[in-house]
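pinned: reference chain
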Amino acid sequence: MSRIDIEGTLSLLGEHHYRSDQSYWETARQRQQFARYLPPQLRSPQEMAHAIASSEGGNSTQCEYNIVSGPLSGTRVSVSLTHQGLHILLSHTNRDLIERLQRVQTRWQRQLHMLGFPCLLEVTHAGESDG
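pinned: its structure tokens
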């Protein structure tokens, strides 16, 4: 299991500063912010995901992380790369946090799509089966 520092990349759950008239500037700023972590785009993200999945016999590539600080502390993040794109599963034992995450789930998924990551984002209770 790897530990990565994502503080500052996600806004606090209580912040309500998002406005649709700022969406273009938000997206441009986020692309610039994450550009240094991404290699130059040679193929579309879907083509790359399909190429990786097919090279592994159709099996998905999976990584798991635990968020250890910030407002999402204790959240388990499971990321799978399939031929459709990323499958991101956020799970936690705190039902209140799960409900808050489910309210922003669609917006986060839309943001990831706008950044060029085709994905399915799910939020579940840590005790629930993810299969």
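why pinned: The longest helix spans residues 95-114. Confidence is low (pLDDT under 50) at residues 7-20.
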